[in-house]
Description:
This protein is mainly alpha-helical. It contains 11 helices and 4 strands. Helix 3 runs antiparallel to helix 4 and helix 5 packs antiparallel against helix 6.
Amino acid sequence: MKNIFSLAEACLHHPDIEQxxxxxHQAQKLLTQGELSLVSEQPPLAISSVQFPSxxxxxxxxxxxxxxxxxxxxxxxxxxxxxxxxxxxIYLAWDMLYRFRGMPDKFYQDWLNVxxxxxQHFELIRTHLQTMxxxxxDLPAHNGLxxxxxxxxxxxxxxxxxxxxxxxxxxxxxxxxIIAKFKHIGDEASVTLLTRILTDEVGHVERxxxxxxxxxxxxxxxxEAQYQRLIKKYYQGGKPKGPFNREMRIxxxxxxxxxxxxxxxxx
Length: 267
């Protein structure tokens, strides 16, 4: 029987993209068939040992070229950026289940399911890029998401607050308006792709909310206060700026109090 943590280690510590995608889908299939062990046998390797492909070249956010969505080059750059986000999301989901041990089996099942869906998203966007004559890695990308993973490598609550409940949740805020732009220009292929990703991401953020509240309850902590504390500690600038998609965030497990705090610019 294959072991989920051995597969996670292979995905995280080998840079080959195709191998990563194949192993991710294989792991999900094994889980569905009841042929995947969730028993932790070896402690995780340090997060500094995670390996990434040689391309795309990674730049800081400030160094990234500025392109507008209204031009063909801007649309290519946009989808390349989304491809990178989804590719990094595969790493983030695998690292979530690999790094934090001693949780219920459902925790590992949930994050493997997220990894598999993120791999599907990446494959769909990569194919979409190919129709534009572009391959993933042809343009530079930024590594901000993984910086948050490194910062929270020793704190599951912080990881859940910063990745699904902050960085991924931003997609719920901004993607509907982007979908509307592609609808306006009649790009139905892009609309369909982004709608699929948005639908799945609501579920991913909801899983983050569920496990954040679970760990808070386990530790006797008040979840809303902890969310504020961790965002203030780890988010550069104190907290993200709106507007926030309250409807989708509520579905994804945010409370009205959390959203009121995020929207209150005086706090």
